[in-house]
Records
---
Amino acid sequence: MSIGLTLLGLLESGPRHGYDLKRAYDERFGHDHPLHYGQVYSTLSRLLKGGLVQLEGVEPGAGPERKRYAITDAGVTDLDGWLGRAEKPEPYLQNTLYTKVVLALLTGRSADDILDTQRAAHLALMRTLTRRKSTGDLADQLICDHALFHLEADLRWLELTAARLAALTEEVLP
Amino acid sequence: MTAPLLVAADVRRSFGATPALDGANLSVRAGEVVAVMGPSGSGKSTLLHCAAGILLPDSGRVTYDGAELTALSDARRSALRRSEFGFVFQFGQLVPELTCLENVALPLRLAGTRRRDAARTALEWLARLGTADVAGKRPGDVSGGQGQRVAVARALVTGPRVLFADEPTGALDSYHGEQVMRLFTESARDSGAAVVLVTHEPRVAAYADREVVVRDGRSVDLERAR
Amino acid sequence: MRRWARDLALGVRLVARGGRGAWTRLTLTAVGVGLGVALLLLAASVPAVLTHRDDRTNARDFNEASGRPTDTSVLYRPLDTEYHGEGVYALAVQALGAHPAVPPGVSRLPGPGEMVVSPRFRAALDAPDGALLRERYPYRVVGTIGDEGLSGPREYSVYLGSDTLTGSWRGNAQRLDRWGSPTPDRGMDPVLLLVTVLGIAALLVPVAVFVATAVRFGSEARDRQQAALRLVGADRATTRRTASAEALLGALAGLVVGAGFFLAGRRLVELLSFDDISVFAGDLTPDPVLAVLVAVGLPVAAVLITLVALRRVAAEPLGVVRRSTTRRRRLWWRLVPPVVGLGLLVPLAGRVTRSGGSLDTAQVAAGLVLVLAGTAVLLPWLVERVVGRMGGGGVARLLAVRRLQADSGGAARTVSGITVAVAGAIALQTLFAGVAHGYEKPTHQDPRAAQAIVTDNRESGPAQRAALAAGLRRSTGVHAVYAFGHGAVFVGDDGGSLVVGDCATLRAYAGVAGCADGDVFTVGTDRSPAFRPGSATTLLVGAQDRELRWRIPATARTAVRSAHSVEGDDRAVLLTPKAAAASPLPPAMPTTAYVRADLTDPLAYDRLETAAARVDPLIDVMRVSGGSVDAKFATVRTGLLIGSIAVLLVIGASLLVTVLEQLRARRRPLAVLAAFGTRRGTVGRSVLWQTAIPVLLGLALAVLVGVVLGGVLLRMTAEPLWFDWSGILGVTGAGAGVVLLVTALTLPAVWRMMRPGAMRTE
């Protein structure tokens, strides 16, 4: 999962200080692993270098916390591309998927679209596995089944998330 | 790309004041297996019933092989279901008083096939689905998986061009569910029948060529979205 | 006992909180049982109805007085007739003494030109179409007959005040000194008693069978409830007790509903009359002992029936297993009731005759009940055995046969009521048809020669006679009137009719040919040969008992009466007017007129009556019929017919409920059948087969049992065996008709269940 893209997503709703960004990130995605300040500023400077964010203004005084960052058009395009793209179906994607859904809600995009896109990608892989299962030997079949069950678990979680969207929306957008 | 065999366009249908379908679309090409997915109460079964001509939509059109289903009389639609369609449901679909063989032969008998010929064809299908041994038993005396396979045999026995399946593995465990799905889709592909498969299980939907999602009575064709 | 109370209370609570399903079930049971209870109460009221009716008709009856007239003597002349096809009790009265006796319900004997009428009669007089009746009875109404003087509330009855009655023995009236028939009723003769016992058994056994099925309404839903109770830890005995609570509740509700039906029906009963019989609401009182028996016996029976029925059902926590399919029904114990019943009846052969013999009512009743109930017991075995061997034909029959094989007991139960009812009705019919000829009194009249005979006892000359004939001829529907002077002629002790009329009339009377005015004929038949010409005779003519001597002229022609004459085998001497003038006969004689008319329409008869009454109210008009059935026997037949129809209808209603309930339980398979394109007609035919097969078996059994039972009973009366096959066919057809009707009524429900919406119930 990319911290840079997540920060871009957080910035899309408006310019923020680095400190604000860290707090917003920790609140929504940090859970057990809050970001270090160093991580925030090194990521931001990488984004600055890539032209995805720009400095909106520096307030008087010293220290990095005086700088306000804003997303650039290039940054929005990057973010769009990421959110619209299905993650490669593989187990334990929930962090990324969760981040994507929340960011979609935060930035006024359709979370249903993200779910549908992801569902299509998952099912495409599951179809391939199902087909391979019907031709393969027993070991193949067992391996395929294992993968299928995990993919299904992800998809089910995704569907549950979809079903809870209304509640989630209220929580995310106070 | 061939022209679709069965098309449901902008179908709306409510039960009393409750809208079940609110502009759903479905398009199935010959020989294609389409999964209809969606949460409970999303209207996916209603979409299946409308597409099969069991229910008449309040508005919208259903066309099969160029003919508008929604304009046919009840008797004509019944005849169409007898000759062109096959059905598998979740449970309670076998006539409990008839033997499994008689259940499978029933659609043939309804279509006017002679008793002996119907029984022979039915037995062949039971054998293809590996359930010839339950031919003489009543549905109440066979296991769920066997019963479902008998139901699949019954759906396929008339050589239908479209099979409708509503949660066909809903009452089965993973192993028997897999078995039934495999036999079902393989037999359908062998006989060139298109399948409309309503399910909420991704693993079952993975047997399909593509999927359509029904949400709040509206359908999203993922293939078209891509 | 405490456990019983606790479990029953639980069962009652389950019904009360069971939602719409439980209430629907309870309502159906209550209505079904209620109909049965109403019939039972009705049957329990029959003794009271008959007693009160007999009391009243005896009180207004009279015996001809002998000896010298007294202060209370009254002359009377019965003028019973018809109005609108219904009987009219009419009596002309004329006071002889200073203080004439007054019939019950009448305050004052009507004077000349006055009449006292029943309420129905008064209503008919006042009705817009009452002109015929008003013309027929041009009297002033001076009073209304009270209930105590009527046989029923809808009776037409009238007392006419007259001053032209004469009481001598050839006069037009008799004398009574007091009202009321002092001789007690001779009681019912044994054959009639046998018929009545059979009739009541044939009504009540089906009702009992019906009640037994009615308390089992909704057994499918009850099964689920039982399973749920087992799941939360109730033992089997407990579930049975809670289940019987529902039956008990249904039976109690049924008692209330039945009492309601009965009371409501009681209020309506006075509005009905059937074949001249109507009943006062006040007479319709159940025998207290029988009523208590119903009130106590029914709930107890309901609980017992449920417990017995549930013995075959094992309620397990995860569902209900019926044991019926696992064990084949055995025949031997099912044969016990009918065999024992026949064993009670057969030894009575030849014991019951009309003239004598006594009837052991208890033994006969027990035998009848056992045989009839045995039919219901035999039927499940028969259905199972026959259906078990049937294979499928078409899809419809296949579905029906397999369904019947799966639950042959249920199928048998649904038609057992009809089977028993039809068996009873056939037995009745057989007994009845065999016995009936003994009660048909030949009248020796041939209805082909004339359709009505008009008797005018006034002494009238030719002009008056012609006026009567002309008056009658004007009545609509009358083709021809032959009026003649009528008297009696004796040679020694042999009597015959004396007839004075023109040649056309004589031809109509006896079929004599080649007649000319002045001729005398003497006619007879093989059995009563004609008087020989030249015989010395005594003539009796008119009210004054005049005896005249006359010798039949030697020139009289002898003739054989034609087969088609009105008064079959009576011998007669016929005189043409000129011959009469040459004889000592007076010119004025009582008149008889033969009327040829189409009287099939009751109104035509009413017009003829009125035409005669306009000439003179005392003129009697009588329909000609080949034979008349003893009135009492006719009453019994009518009562039983009404009963059979009522029973078949009630059972038909219950059959409808049962079939609908069975259909409801099959909603899912029906919807699936519809989904894969089954034609409605196929399912409709399968439903028909499903009822028709057990019904045909039931009716076959019913015909067998009915014919055997009827034959045994007929042997009891020592009458020759004779079966009224057309009647049997009629009753069987009525039973089959009820089933067809029920099936037709269930079809809309089948169509509704086949509507695809039904799929959504899952």
---
Amino acid sequence: MQRYIIIRLLQSLLALWVMSLIVFGLARVTGDPIDALLPIEATLEERETIRRNWGLDKPLHTQYLVFLSKAVRGDFGNSWKWQGHTAMGLVLARLPATLELAGVAIAISIVLALPLGVLAAVKKDTLFDSVGKMVALLGQSLPAFWLGIILMWIFAVMLGWLPTSGRGGISRLILPAVSLGWFQVAVIMRLVRSAMLDVLDSEFVKLTRVKGLSEWKVIWKHCLRNAAIVPLTYFAINAGVLMTGSVVIENVFVWPGTGRLALEAIQARDFQVVQAIVIIFATVFLFANLIVDILYAYLDPRIRYQ
Amino acid sequence: MSETPLLQVHHLKKHFPVTRGLLAMKTIGWVKAVDDISFSVPQGETLALVGESGCGKTTTAKLILRLEEPTDGEILIDGQPVHDLRGNALKAYRTAVQAVFQDPWSSLNPRMRVRQIVAEPLVINRKMSRAAVAARVQEVLDSVGLRPQQANLYPHEFSGGQRQRIAVASALISQPKLIILDEPVSALDVSIRAQIMNLLVDLQQAYHVSYVLIAHHLATTRYMAHEVAVMYLGKIVERARTEALFTEPLHPYTRALFSAALPGHPDITREEIILPGEVPSPINPPSGCRFHTRCPVAQSQCAEIEPEETDIAPGHMVACHLYN
Amino acid sequence: MRQARLRQSAGLFMVLMLLSLAFLGGDAQAQTREAKVDRLVIGLINPFRDYFRAWISGTPDHNIQHDPILEWLIEIDPDTGQYVPWLAKSWEMTPDGRLWRVKLQEGVNYHQDYGEFTAKDVVHNHALWCEANYPGRADPPSSAYRTGICTVERVEVINDYEVLMHCKEPCLDFEFYYSEAANVMMFSKAQWDKEGEMGYERKPAGTGPYEFKERKLGQSVLYERAPTPHWKHGVVDWKELMMTWTIEESTRYAQLLAGETHLTEVNKDLVDQLVSRGYKLVRSRGTAQQIQIVFGGLYFGTEDPQTGRYTEHGGITGKLDPSEPWTKKKVRQAMNKAINREELLEVLYKNRADYMYVHGYYPDLPGWDPTWEQRFPEMYGYDPQAAQRLLREAGYPNGFKAKAWLFPFAGAPELIPLVEAVQIQLLDVGIELRLEEADLVSTIAPIWRARKAHGYLAAVPPSKKAVEAQIAVFNAGKAGIHQFETDEIYRMWEELKQLADPTERDVLLRKIGNYKFENFEIIPLFNVFIEVVVDPNIVDDWAFPGWDGGDIGHTWRITACKQEEPCR
């Protein structure tokens, strides 16, 4: 088990290093960063000064080494757009907001999708199942951003029950988390349903019924635990999506998270911040995958002793 | 023996609806999986149900286990109708009737340790102290030939034969009166089969437990069963004590089955009766005697009139116009 | 007889009515009710920069963040558009145009007990901009206006309330660069000495009617009314002022409707919807931006390293491509005459803009020529047949093909449908325009800068600034756009920089303006106002000139609606 974890860790670090190369290269490939840093009317002299100050006049590999040596210590330089803040400082300041949003969205989606998926599987081919399928279809085809605006319109403008935007307190968390989690509900529900159907058919489940276990216990205690591995896999892939897909939701709801930070940084070509964000995202993504892999081993003893 | 048979099945029927439609289901036909069968099993004996796949033997097992509800007829355990039981009576039933299924690889929960799997029937149906449960687990593992240290392991760490032993242990722990064995050895290596069969016979002798054995491998049947019932398309076509059936099979279908089985010795030659065609669909069983479409000795009345179950000799029943 | 008495009683009745009205009115005025909400929330679009230290980079497009708390030397009066005293009580130029004597307001105190605003603060703020190695300042100053600001070479202190601004060459636009139209706001020297540069970010102390309270990065800035009445504005209407930034249009809309903001910027199409829902449109008193279409490739000037003419950005020798159709004046005129400005005005601007005539020239700024308005219809006005005739004369009887860039511009989303409409109008006279989507920063700006924009049209919205600054930036190669460069214009601009006499300057500016006008420098379209929508229940009015640095300012002129009925 330990060996397994160590190998996975090393793999993650390798992936992270490759990410740093890509990120570094991209920021410089899409045009001269100076163009984005200064207004159109800046003079040539000013451009040269800025170029020197930011070390952009040095050869590319020198720049990369400088970048890497600092990055390893968590120093991604200073932000251009948000003067007086370091790039990493900005990202870390906004990260809790995104994690909060993603976390609540996941929680909502699990709380809704799990029972729905289980019920859809148990009541297969009934009206409930058909309704469930339709809900799933809607969930996957409605764009989150559109849903967000509609929900905002209904609940904040027309009904006045919730605030439109911003962060602070539970009332502001509801609309963006639901908009973000909606798609997840649909997907997880379908995954749980099909995983459950698989397990429900197993011999040992039939045996458990024979042994006298009540149907509900059969479903929740035996089936779900075995079916859980499928949505878990999905989460690993999804961690990344939730972090970055929330860009749209964060924008609509003016949620001060890393998604919005990324958008603004990209528009302003604040490449220090963009680098920091991408590396952080990559780290979170890799970390989430690592956790899931470890959980796999815990959940399914067969994987443990490979 | 004049005591009540442990298991009695009277005119049992199970018809599955065939539905069509996306949102609203419409029934367009019925699969007559089990269509009026009757038999009984005394305490301490084994009845084997044999037949090709699709003949309804597995469905019969499920009906006895209350995994399905019968469309008609009844099943009695110790004279009690099984399908009305609720509450404590139901729990008692679950304790009394257990099962061992065919596939050793999927019949054990991969996430549970062996001791948990084996203990489950006790834990669910009875209030016993942990120590008492643990003691029983050790006992029953011992009786199936497993060591106590193995109790903490996971199913995937055992071989197929060992897993079936675990399944048997789990079926035994509640001291059942009846165990349904659904092809318990067919998924095992030939060399292991004998071991498991021996184990089952030993356990029967030790604990006086009844078995309903579902099998399509006739050698197993001959070794383990006291009585054999042959099923075809949801009906029992012949039922007799094992030796009587094996020495003198009467029904044309039984004969064909036996002729298809490999002889015990390579030197024994037999004439193989090859049945034409395939087993018809249970949705539309043939009229009259269900077997008439493939029967080598079918007469004209076989297509029109269903043969009745007749006792040719005491304890030997046949449903065939040849013997009416 | 009877009639006379009737008239008498009528007259008496009238007098009584008037008296009672005056009495009642006076009574109403005597009431000083508070604003209906404690905190005014302003919904803006996109914070250009999220920090206060204005000298670091950028145009003054984000002056609004400074506006409640900091003050400038010179104010632009919203109603007249003229420069009026602010922290500078008076200013006087010497005849040679190289020296301004500025007298400062007395008794103005900084927040947070940082003492009185005096000459030392003026020196400090000038140095922040212009001194190369000012101690304590981390980043070097950079901005389009820096050259103009630092034409003032040295600030000499006469006494606490009087300074002399010495310019290295005639600096007639001093007023512009030290007004709220540019970005030399008066930070506190005392705070700098005590807290260092970052004190200006943590909690900047200013002299304005509001004090800085809190910034939530990327979300909002909160200001609160200063504890003592302001030296100039007395007690302002709101206890607290909050600015929020929301890029997403529909969210800003929802915020206003839900009452979370009381005043918001919206794009033009939503303005009408909001007005029909009962909200009130308030616009800048004067126009704030010009909308024009630029011809790429008008590089007529000759480089001269000796005089430094057009030597920035790699020089221009040989960059002109005479085969490009619109290098011919007749073609430029033809294209102008193919544009139906009336239609564009009605559809895109809902008739809420004015026509513009010459880039960089405004009626209230020097150099304005009133005859342009009369001459415009004949020279530039919509006449497709004349356009086709001109094209024929220029040698393009069947028109020609060209390209135009499409790019989003924050705050002016109508530029894209504008170019699309122009494409159709030009097609009517045989000019086929191919539209290319491109990114302003990474694609277009470098091409402009390298003087390689031949064959590309682009719609740009330059903001209002001092006329000389416009010419320097757009015609004299001092920045990256190179809109229309000729030796003639450069020579005139060089001459302009040496003039000290305002009257002479005005004459020369007008001459330059006419040169641009008669040479069909661009396709001039509109002068637009900055529009905001307010909740008339909460807000009565907002008087702002529209050129607070290309942004909105004068936040202390947001007046509260203090009557029961919404203030229409």
